[in-house]
Amino acid sequence: MKILWFIKSTLRKLIIRKLIFSGYSSYFAPIVYRRRNEDLFKNKKTTISQKIWAQKRGFFSDSISFYGLTDGNYSEYLSDFDYYRLHPINGPYSKWIDDKLTLRYILQPFAEYLPEYYYHIHNNEILRLSDCPEGFGQTIQDVINLLKEKRHLAAKLVSGSLGKGFYKLAFDGQDFFINNNISPEEEVRELIITWKQTENVGYLITEYLQASKDLRKIWSESPNTMRIMVIRERDQIPRIVLSYIEFGLESSGVIESVNGIYCQVDQVTGCFSDGKIDAGDKVLDCRYHPDSLVLCEGVIPHWSQVTDKIIEISSYLPQVRYMGFDVVITDDGFKIIEINSLQGIMMIQYFYPLLSNEMSKEFFNMLIKEKKAGCKNL
C-alpha cells in the first residue's frame, strides 16, 4: 500500500510540475489535475469516449451537454483548460480587486458606488471602517446596536466568491434574523464571536443592498446581482463585452450566486430576457419565475448610468485588464459588491460564446498567444 501511495504521489507531483511548465499557475495546476481526474474517473454522466473527446479539445466533459458542443462549434467557446491557464490575467494587480477590503480603499474616489463599509472583524478584533457612523465603538454590542439602527446588514468574507460565507442580518424592531430565519440575539452574538476567530482575512460588515423596486417585482428575497464583463485590449480603453442578471429562487435563500435564474442583458438597450436555470450539466428555459410567477423580462433601471460609470471606474484601474463586476441595481442607481479577476464563464458562454464575439475573441486569443510565447521562453 505504501508503495502504491508513493507511486501515485510521485506521479501527481510530476504531472502538476508539467502543468506549471506548460503555463498553469501554481494555484491552478493542482486544481486542473484534480478536476481532470474527477472528470475521467468519477463523472458518471458522460461516457469515456465523450471524456476523451472533450479533454482533447480542452473541455471537461460536462461542457458537452451544457454548451451543446460539437465538432462544428466547439472552437467558438473559450475552453476550460485555456481559461485556467490564463490565470492570473491581471498579474499582481488582481489583488487590488479580489480582496473586498482593498477594493474599498482603491476605489475611494468612487465610494458612492460601493456599499457602506462598517466593520472588519478578524484576529479577535472588531475594527471600525470608514463608513461606520459616529457613536459606534468596536464591541459586539456596538455591532448589534448598528444592526438595530440600520435594520439590515451584510456580512461577507473579505476574500471569497459564489456567496461563500455570506450572511444577511436583520432586525425588525422586535426580532433578530439570520439569513431570514428568526434568531435570538444571543445567536447573533455567537455568530460575531465566530467571525472574530476566523483565520486569515476575516469578515466585513457592510450595508445590505436591496434591489430596485422594479427588479423586486420579479424576486425580492435576494439582491438580484448583475454581472458585467469588462476587458481592456492593449493600448485601448476598457469596453463592456457582455452582461447578465441573476434572480434568486426560494431554494437559493438570501443569495443567488449558487443557483438562480439567469437573463441575458442587451448591451445597447439594457433589456433583459431569455431566463435560464443552470441545472448542472444542462440549462433549462425559465421564462417565468417559478416562485413569484412573474415574467423574467424587463429593462435594467439606470442602464446608461451603469455602463458609463463602469467604464469610468475601469479606466481608473488601467492595470486591471479583465474584470467581472458584480453590481446591485438600486432605486437610486447601482452599487458594486465585488469585482472578480477570474470570473466563472460557464453561464456567460451559454449566452455569449467568447470566441464567437469579435471583441472577446481578439482579447482572449491575444492572451493565449502571450501565454504560449511565455512558455516557449522558459
Q: What does this molecule look like?
A:
By secondary structure, the chain is of the alpha+beta class. The chain folds into three domains: 2-89, no CATH class; 92-111 and 211-365, D-amino Acid Aminotransferase, Chain A, domain 1, CATH 3.30.470.20; 116-207, no CATH class. It has 13 helices and 15 strands. The chain has helices at residues 2-21, 28-41, 48-56, 62-67, 80-85, 94-98, 100-106, 140-150, 185-196, 213-216, 303-316, 346-351, 358-376; strands at 117-122, 125-128, 152-157, 167-171, 176-178, 181-183, 203-207, 226-231, 239-247, 261-265, 271-278, 283-285, 298-299, 322-329, 334-340. The strands form two sheets. Strands 8, 9, 10, 11, 12, 13, 14 and 15 form an eight-stranded antiparallel β-sheet that branches. The radius of gyration is 22 Å and the shape is globular. The protein starts with a helix and ends with a helix. The mean pLDDT is 93.
CATH class of the largest domain: Alpha Beta
Alpha-carbon distance between the two ends:
37 Å
Count the domains: 3
Query: If you consult CATH, what is the topology of the largest domain?
Result: D-amino Acid Aminotransferase, Chain A, domain 1
Number of strands: 15
User: Helix coverage percent of residues?
Assistant: 25-40%
Query: What Rg do the Cα atoms give?
Result: 22 Å
Q: CATH homologous superfamily of the largest domain?
A: ATP-grasp fold, B domain
Number of helices: 13
Name given to the CATH architecture of the largest domain: 2-Layer Sandwich
Model regions low in confidence, pLDDT < 50 over at least 5 residues: none
Give the SSE string: HHHHHHHEEHEEEEHEHEEEEEEHEEHH
- The portion of residues forming beta strands comes to 15-25%
Largest sheet: 8 strands, antiparallel
What structural class do helix, strand and pairing data support? alpha+beta
